[in-house]
Description:
Layout: H1 4-24, E1 26-31, H2 38-52, E2 55-60, H3 65-73, E3 79-82, H4 84-92, H5 102-108, E4 111-127, E5 142-144, H6 152-163, E6 171-173, H7 177-185, E7 191-196, H8 201-209, E8 212-214, E9 230-235, E10 249-261, H9 266-278, H10 280-286, H11 308-317
Parallel strand pairs: 1-2, 1-3, 5-6, 5-7
Antiparallel strand pairs: 3-10, 4-7, 4-8, 4-10, 9-10
Amino acid sequence: MNNPAKWLRRSLCFMAVSVAATVNAEQISMETVAPSSVAGIVPQTMASFWAQDGVDVQLSMNQTLTKSLLKMTQGALDSAVVPPNAYSALVGGRAPYAGMGDKGAALAQNVRSLFSIPASVYHAIVWNDSGIRSWADAEGKRIFIGPPAGSANEQITSIVKAGGLSEGQYEAVKAPWGAAAQNFQDGQFDVLVSTYGLGSQALSELSLSRDIRLLSVKPENAEPPAGLGLVQRTIPAHTYPGQQNEADVIGWQAVLMLAVKKDLSDELAYELTKSYMENRQALADGNALLQELPSANPLAGVNAPLHPGALRYYREAGIEVPESLTVN
């Protein structure tokens, strides 16, 4: 700018507005997973947009989402990214909430949803020189199925089953997400089933260190079971530099939902939803891993009732809402 004094006045004005917005913002707590995952990138990036709309999000990363869901049901957390299958497991008293019974179902009544996030894609990875070219070849092998007590266990075992192996035909290995890739490189298991954004730089770098092969679910099992928070997704051959698949791979993509505690104010739920919906294109423009957001159905995979504030937004926007999500 040619006029430094004018630039300074504008900068000071902007800072004053920003400070005022921060002071007047309503603060909420939120938890999500790894910063580099789609489920981590979306709330991180949205935090600045939410702040502009008067919502100060205090975001905690690298959390176990099944535990975040419980914290939210108990009122100790305002919001979290939640796997739909974790919510249904809480309602039904299934693992990782086995033994809670009716108490789990009662706690689930304290959760409301805002929108879904098309998250990362499950990649079933083996070293190309391992001799494993299909799931049948992985019988008796060590397979990573996610962290202990995580909702991913159910999803990954379903993927392995769709590939042709039943539980008991392989050795299931559980470990924290953060250690999984290194453990795979160290030879602690033979098949790494983990989530990556399609075209992930991290997986590209892994494939450059040593050629990889991706395992596909069987074509007749291409459609994921209902209620798992998964949708079908094709991983093209040669997506990664060292990927040796000659044909496209049938995989499954995780769908997560942003949920809030039931007694969050209608206005806050409305602003969180409206701001996300209106800034999806900006998120996609800023990160190649978020290209799906603008065209994604914001209610795909959502299985918790919508918060009245979110429902208000969708009705104003003319977005059709399944009747099953309108029960409050």
